[in-house]
Please model this.
Amino acid sequence: MTSPESPPITARAPRWRWLWPRIAVAIVASFAILILALGAFPVGLMRGLVENRLSSALKTQVQVGSITRDSVFSYTPLVSVRDVRIAQPAWAGTGDFVQVAAASVRVPAFDLLFGAFRPDRVTLDGARIALVRDASGRANWKPGGPQPGNPDSTGPSLSDVTITNTQITLRDAKRGLVVAGPLTVDAAHGLRLSATGTFLDTPATLDLTGGRITGIDPAAPYPFAAKLVSRALRMTAKGVMSGVLDTRHFKADITAQAPTLKNIDRIIEAGLFGTQAIDVAGTIRHDGRDWYIDRIGGSIGRSRFTGRATIHKIDERTQIDARVHATQLDFDDLADAKGQAVSAQRRTTIGPRVIPPTRINLSKLWKTDGTLRVTVDHLVSKGGTVFRSLSATLSLDHKLLTTSKIVATLANGRMTGTARVDHRSGLPKLSLDVRLMGLTLEALIGKPDMVGGQVRGHIVLRGQGETVRDALSHASGKAAIVATQGHVKRIVADVLGQNLSGAVVHAIGDPSEQVPLRCLVANFSASNGILVPHPLGIDTGSSVGRGAGRIVLDGERIDLTLAGTSKSRALLRIADPIRIGGTLSAPTVSVAGAGTTDKPTPGALLKVFGRSLRQALGLSKAPPDIPIPPPATFACASAVAAALR
Model:
């Protein structure tokens, strides 16, 4: 018996075969609904949201009268707002930051869909805009403080802009600029702002002009010009932006004239200093966060210079690479009238000084790195200077300033070396390593008939302080100067050897006679700003001398004594040593107790003769012990080598 056949089993279609098509249809339908809704979105419903968002972002009260659109359905709607009021933040005072009677903006809807607000048409009518910045740099147009821009951000998309019946006021306490005037943008005249007011409390005018912004390619080059005129500064800029109102990418020719560089710095805010009157012209470029000074030249006082530079912004730091070439430079031009008055008052109070009071505090440059190469063809000074030219390379890296490849030519000879300021912690630390070569005693002393010879030197000093003067007043190290292969007047050599009888004979017989100068070695060791000779010696053809004492750099005071002996038998010795006093800027020499004048009086000479004669005859007590006994010989070769190491 056979069983009846079972009916065939039909396989059920997998569930995903009918689920995915439905999901796809739903997504397409949702996207289509979103697209349709985007084209017909009722913008009026956004008024409350716009007020809240703007109030939060600007940290002040924002009111919007109404928001409407020009058509029921459009993917590029023209959105209009009326009766907009943005109050000033509390710190900026009373009144409104912005008042707008009417404004309209055309915004591509798909840009909003992807998170971008890039209007291409803007119309503004009846606006009052009050820009305020305080002395610390806080600005009402940057409620969150200065923000670094995105170097890769896309440029403007504006192709049509119209602004009518609009007034702009600016109160910038940091720049010292207060101006107000009408702003218009139309098809006939382009952009125009004519403002009047004050700059650094002097009457000023500010004029800005630009090309028209009507039916144009927003990425096409956009011409502009700016001019600020006042007694405190006259500055112009004329150039081309990479696109409409693209202030982040432009190139311009600039000119500036001011009583001091500090007035220009009020506008560009680069941390510059006060100077004498300045007149400069150049070409600059701005590319994202970077600046390029393709060329700049002009004058500061009677100094003349040219240069170029690049300034890169890398994260939070500024990187500078610059070159400056001065055909003529007067360091006095690098101080304004106030700075020169302070220096004059300081000289009156403490007297003239050799060591400069130049500040070496780098605290304001903690975000700045870079390299500056300086060349000066001709150095000048109203008071005269032994320096003729100068070149050096300055490198700054995280508050470590190194000045290398220093070459300064003097009236004869030159100075080379390096200087370093380390302000990475504590007080600034100054380090100097300088060599002198090619100088002559004739030029240094100014009396070639009295003494001459080749001069070399080596200075290695380290100290801490806010200025060069402060740092060297506490410096340690060495300072050495040597002279060799020279000559000295025989009478001077006799006085150095304390040979009174020889000095009298040669003064009567041949006062112009000279003897060789084998060496003069002044090798000072420094500790806490006090220089002590190690050694101080001189060897001539007829005498040998040795010195003791000290030089105190805090006040630049000199207190040295030279004691000598004649290489020949002296019938009568001078009782008193040679004493050197005064300061580095005004040294005094008391030759054998005869006073500090170049030509001792007959009375002083008679006193010297009398004291020496009484001592020789045993009629008076011996003078106080000389700090160091006069040597019979002096080892020139080894002393010179040790000093120049």
